[in-house]
Amino acid sequence: MADPRPSRPRRTMHDIRKPVKPGANFPYPLPETYSARRMVHAIRKRLTRKALLTALGILAGGYLIMLAVFAHSAWNAVETAKNALPELRAAAEHFDTGAAVAKLDTISQTIDTATQQAELSGISVIASVLGIVIPPLREVPPLLSNIATLNTKTLALANDINELKTGGIAMVMGRHGSDLIDLLTRTDADMKTISATDSALSAQSDQLGRDSATLASLIRPLTDKYMTINSHLAEAENFLDSLIALLRQPGEVHLALLLQNPTEIRPGGGFLGSFGDIVLQNGSLEAVHIDDIYNADRQLTVKVLPPPELAGITPTWGARDANWFFDFPTSAQKVMDLLQASQLFQQPQQVTFQGAIAVNTNVLQSILAATGPVTLDHYGLTVTADNFLPELQREVETGPDKKPGQNPKRILSVLAPILMQRLQALSDTQRSDLIGSFANQMKNKDIMVYFTDWYMENFMQSAGIAGNVMQLQPGQPADYLAVVDANVAGGKTDAEIAQDISLNSALQPDGSVANQLAVTRTYSDAGPGDWWYHVPDTNYMKVLVPQYSRLLSLSGETTAPRTPTPLSGAMTDTDLLAIRQTNIATSSFTAFAGQEFGKFSFGAWLTTNPGTHKTLTMSYEEPAVNAPADGGSYTFIFEKQSGVPSALTYTVTAPQGYLWKESGGRTYRFTAADTPAREIIQLTLQKAS
After folding, report:
1. Strand partners, 572
2. pTM for this one?
3. Of 315, 255, 278, 392, nearest to 570 (Cα)?
4. How sure is the predictor about 193, in pLDDT bands with cuts at 50, 70 and 90?
5. Residue 170 and residue 177: Cα distance in Å, rounded?
6. What phi, psi does 606 have (nearest 5°)?
7. List of residues 6+ apart from 337 with CB closer than 8 A
8. 524 vs 1, which has greater pLDDT?
9. CA-based radius of gyration for the chain
10. 115 exposed, middle or buried (CB, 10 Å; 0-12, 13-18, 19+)?
11. 10 Å Cβ neighbour count for 52?
12. Which of 544, 451, 449 is nearest to 241 (CA)?
């Protein structure tokens, strides 16, 4: 019988001193190169690999510890920055550059500590090495380097701006314009470095976000801090490039100085009784020529029809009345055009103004408060911040220069060089305080700046000092209001007028808005005894509201005080014509309705006698933009006229079934004794529970 067990390979004797040939009757074939020496090498290799893995584990653990240390330092930096930002913002708003530099220095030291910690801990080196295996880590060293660069340049920029604030006036007036240009050039270079580094940080942060959420969460707070602060750098860079080019251009640079008197209000500010020609060369102030604006108007080479509201008091339009537009850039350009059309600026060669600076009389009062009283021997008068306006007005109206062929504004020509000399002698503290006053006056439209260069003007508008009319975004649920006064042959009575504006709005279920507006002008008649303060206040009032609004009712208006006298042979201004062509006389009341600057406008006369008050009331409806929704936003924008302090009361009611998050009820109310140039109120709708 056959054996059922499987057969085994037959054992054979083998000489271990000789290598085994492949397939030589060995049941478990060995590699061709196998030997005792190879076996020992394999064992060592296994041990080395294990040791390497152990070492890498230790290194990784140490790296994680160092990363944790850096993370702690980084978060400290973030917290320091976050806590300092409110104070930094407040310092910037008050133009307190010294405080801003101190805050930035605190942030700088904290971030330096974080980046130094990263270097001392070897995080950058380790990240570079491990980046071969873990690609996201490659971004860490350049990112940390960019944070350090951005930090250094931001602080340098703050110091440059502080130097401009404290020394800029002295450089311009002391004929050190080249130093000013050098400082501006350095500032521009710092901004460009910040902008480029910021872009690199943004790209690196985005890359980390795609590759490693953990690293991105660690770095993002640091990069976000800079990206927020530097969001408007492009506009500032373009502005500086244009400004430096302007200051470096060969020959003279001319800027128009518009001296506005708000006691006789006009849409663009106060009446332009006087103006100045600011002459710059190579960044230095060469001269400031102050003159009576009627001197320029008498030499006009063109005849232009005036606005219809002025046609009853003047047959032609001149630079004196050209700030007739609520939009200051339009007013400024119109004044410059008419000045340049005067022979005063055509001989011996044509002067071209490249910008305009409008200042109200309270700005000159601030300068006198800083410089102290000025004695004018020729006039037997000491001018102070308190008596400046009434004494100046008295000299202009009744003084020795009020003669045919004389310049009644000559007193300003005498006063201006004395003030400029005093300004150069101010201490750093006095100069800083004065510039702080200027910053507040810019926010209040007491100082407005316009440039013909688009980049410079765009920066002025972004900075909120251009006096331009704000444009609403299409589809934006927003209400808008501006009340614009024009004193037409009403003396200087606006010095005695208090204006109160009350707007009651109701948001409808379909998204339309029903408005009830009341504007009250109270004439106190308590000023000096001079006649120009005690005549009837003859005011033409325009109310600007969102486009496509519809006037429903109006009351309190008066009739036009004078009948226009047409002038043959005069040309029509294109900007005035564009507005006039939209004006429609309403059949129900004495008013005009039209469009200008992207707004709908209602215009009416309102004459107020001394010791009385008058109220103009109107109701109007705005079309729906979006239907109300839970969480929906709603914005109210009030723009104030330059030179007109106005108390504002704004009340808005939410539609049935909704309330305002900000008040917790259906009604939201805002009151202010006076507002900044642009008051923006942002509200949020909530479904009522």
Report:
1. none
2. 0.80
3. 315
4. confident
5. 9
6. -145, 100
7. 322
8. 524
9. 37
10. buried
11. 10
12. 451
Task: Give the pair of three-digit tokens for residue 98.
Answer: 């010294």
Confidence grade of residue 121 (pLDDT, cut at 50, 70, 90): low
CA pair distance 521, 615, nearest whole angstrom:
6
Query: Which residue type does 41 have?
Result: H
**According to the 3-state scheme, what is the secondary structure of 443-508?**
HCCCEEEEECCHHHHHHHHHHCCCCCCCCCCCCCCEEEEEEEEEECCCCCHHHHEEEEEEEEEEEC
Cis ω before 348 (30° cut-off from 0)? yes
Q: How far is CA 681 from CA 479, 627, 628, 642, 651, in A?
A: 10, 19, 17, 20, 11
Contacts of 533 (CB under 8 A, 6+ apart): 263, 491, 492, 493, 495, 496, 525, 527
CA dist., res. 519 & res. 481, Å (int): 12
Cα 47 to the chain's mean position, in Å?
Answer: 68
Distance between CA atoms of residues 589 and 612, nearest Å: 23
Helix (H) or strand (E) holding 362, with range, is helix 361-371
- Type of residue at 103: K
pLDDT digits (tens, 9 = 90+) for 151-174: 677 777 778 877 887 788 788 888
Please report, as a single letter, which amino acid is at residue 239: F
One-letter identity of residue 653:
T
